[in-house]
Recover the amino acids of this structure.
């Protein structure tokens, strides 16, 4: 591991960012006129959300955050993962138009798998299992000492995070998000289950991960055990704060719509003009 926080270039991260932004721009310009005729392929808000989501991926996976997370501080590693899961992934969903999501999910095997894994109970169990796997010592040590493994786990984390948020944010009527009560209970489950690995981190008296126990002390006054405890607190407090904030928003929207008799606008936002294109040739 490096002993100084020197500047590093991460070509894999830059290639991924260019591929995501380039692919998005190409889809809007080349596929948009075909799959969204007569209307804008993506609204300004959608484009802003997608770019913001990619920007968060880039910030979290590039220097200096990547170097701090991989070689020095497990607490930064935790913030990095939480940024991908709780901020970047939902922004990517919100930034992708319904017609483009439908196009990406059009292959039958992909659609069939997606339909199963994004059911609320399945998504809760799958994402929770993957989150637990990310925190076992062999996995953390491997990610901290092997850049390719670390990058691959980040890609999987973003994919599983999109699965996590799909039952809450899906704009597709044929693969819809859940109703308000189910979404609230579902997010409550996601706020509770991660407290199990977080508790192990918070209350452990000794470092659980060799890679971080042996890492150079960037902050001499912060021990590896204390850094690990901070990571656990971040996982509990910040993660819970974000999820409970979304729960509060959903609850008040639910109450407002019940009072007004209005529709769930997120559910219907891409319905008009999309259904007739659901079976459009690919």
């Amino acid at each position: 591991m490096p002993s100084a926080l020197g500047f590093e270039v991460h070509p894999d991260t830059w290639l991924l960012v260019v591929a995501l932004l380039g692919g998005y721009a190409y889809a809007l310009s080349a596929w948009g006129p075909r799959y969204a005729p007569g209307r804008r392929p993506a609204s300004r808000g959608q484009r802003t959300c997608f770019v913001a989501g990619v920007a968060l991926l880039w910030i979290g996976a590039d220097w200096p955050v990547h170097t701090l997370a991989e070689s020095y501080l497990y607490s930064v590693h935790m913030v990095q993962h939480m940024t991908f899961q709780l901020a970047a992934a939902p922004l990517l969903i919100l930034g992708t138009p319904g017609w483009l999501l439908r196009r990406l999910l059009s292959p039958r095997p992909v659609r069939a798998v997606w339909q199963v894994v994004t059911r609320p109970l399945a998504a809760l169990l799958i994402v929770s299992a993957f989150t637990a796997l990310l925190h076992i010592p062999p996995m953390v040590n491997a990610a901290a000492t092997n850049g390719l493994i670390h990058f691959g786990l980040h890609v999987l984390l973003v994919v599983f995070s999109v699965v996590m948020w799909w039952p809450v944010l899906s704009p597709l009527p044929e693969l819809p998000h859940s109703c308000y009560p189910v979404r609230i209970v579902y997010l409550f489950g996601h706020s509770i289950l991660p407290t199990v690995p977080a508790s192990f981190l918070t209350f452990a008296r000794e470092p659980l991960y060799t890679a971080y126990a042996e890492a150079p002390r960037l902050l001499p006054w912060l021990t590896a055990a204390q850094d690990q405890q901070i990571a656990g607190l971040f996982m509990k407090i910040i993660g819970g704060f974000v999820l409970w904030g979304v729960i509060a928003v959903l609850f008040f929207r639910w109450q407002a719509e019940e009072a007004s008799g209005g529709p769930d606008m997120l559910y219907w936002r891409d319905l008009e003009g999309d259904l007739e294109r659901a079976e459009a040739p690919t």
Q: What stands out?
A: Confidence is low (pLDDT under 50) at residues 265-282. DSSP finds 14 helices and no strands in the chain.
